[in-house]
Amino acid sequence: MTHSSIPPVLTPRASTCQIPIDSSIRSNTPIVLTIAGSDSGGGAGIQADIKAMSATGSFACSVITAITSQNTQGVSAIFPIPLDHVTSQLDAVFTDLNIVAVKVGMLADSQIIKIVADKIKQYQPKYLVIDPVMVATSGDLLLETSAISTLKQELIPLADIITPNLPEGAALTGKAVPKSEAEMQGMIEDLRALGAKALLLKGGHLEKDENSNDLLILPTTSALISAKRFPTQNTHGTGCTLSSAIASFLAQDNTLEKAVELGKQYISHAIAHADELQVGEGHGPVHHFFVGHGNVR
């Protein structure tokens, strides 16, 4: 069908196949909100979040904080969403949808961070997962120092869990980027001092290690979560995907430890299957739907 054959106004037509609908049956699928930037290439940000939440069995809604011009080879432009529209998006979803868990990603600046923190306090979702998107792959800071301070003061203390990678952990604590598992362990107390209920320090940057080891830090204990490392360049959006999966599993009433375990399993499989996709010429995305729709359990 060509575009010229589509009528300018579409009117409802009687279906040839009538399916009875029982209006008393309602879905109990938990609703998860992602607050993050858009990735036009589809591998990270809002797009990755929605895919991960959907693939792990939750319903995803979104608040977009910035629009990026982006593909597998890099980011060429960023357009921050006006503050009043960030606010109106938050009010729109929170006043209508029963949002159980919230995942926060790219927030761009101090003003947006304060708006998000105020709305989290106002609407009080059951779970808050923060992926502190602060450091680019190149090592450049994506947040100004003042914005990092606002993130630490206003938003992180509200979190059930934050999921920094090693450069982000260093930016949050003022310590050097860990170069070993022992140095990751040495960062535990500084990370606890940030005030989140739990932290997942991701060790993916330790590329010489045979396994990808993350450190789950709880108030009085810590545990190493290990998974096989897969040789692929298609790892774009791994942090977004993992934090979104954790938020999804929390919304399904898993314990924090179980949600992290399931999230780690999910991202490991998504990376393992990443080379089955052929997307772009650079660092491609992970395979969010490696087993189709439904939970990984």
TrEMBL record:
GO cellular component, one term: cytosol
GO annotation (BP), single: thiamine biosynthetic process
Keyword field: ATP-binding, Kinase, Nucleotide-binding, Transferase
Record NCBIfam families: HMP-P_kinase
EC annotation from Swiss-Prot or TrEMBL: 2.7.1.49
Taxonomy, superkingdom: Bacteria
Protein name per UniProt: hydroxymethylpyrimidine kinase
One Pfam assignment: Phos_pyr_kin
Pyridoxamine kinase/Phosphomethylpyrimidine kinase domain residues: 39-287
Enzyme class: transferase
